[in-house]
Amino acid sequence: MMVVRTHKAGKRCLLRRLGMAGLLLGLTACGPGSGPAPRLYPAALPEDDKGATYRLIMYGGMDPNDFETVAILDREDDPYRIVSHTGEIRVKSKEGLNVDEALAEARQFLGRHNDFMGLEIRELRLADGHLPGYEIRTDYSPTAGRLGELLDTTYLPGPDQTIIFYVYWPPGIDDSGPSTDDKNP
User: Fold this and answer.
1) Cα separation of 103 and 101, whole Å?
2) Residue 50 neighbours by CB under 8 Å, 6+ apart
3) How confident is the model at residue 182, as a pLDDT?
4) Which of 5, 74, 81, 158 could, after both became Cys, cross-link 33 (CB 3.0–4.6 A)?
């Protein structure tokens, strides 16, 4: 007789993996904004952006030591709008900021974490070379381990020139670290 052991956390992890895979596959395969996904590249914010204004999107930060926290600068003078897949849940935003104001607000938002060492900035580029915005993340101290580096953000084209961003932990990882529930006894 075969004995099957199940774990709630293992089932939850499997369901989360299947759900995320289905969601991403569905959005990329048949979404109205189908096309190449925007890519992230290491960058620095422009010093003088000729009067451009940004909308600062602050995702996460439910408590000061939340690793699931990202800031995104969305250029207001281009046709693209960056939006969260969660809508307004877990998202705060401020509009009409110049690059220096947006960077100061992002630093204040991300800098609340105990392991904060600095900011890591990446530019968000479309396949045609257009730059709709920037992603800003916390550069964590070594005492935080690799947990801060494992958080994933994905950007996909959406309808009506939107770019939808997803923030999630890779399968088997959550904000407390790698899961051991999936191992066989």
Assistant:
1) 5
2) none
3) 47
4) 158
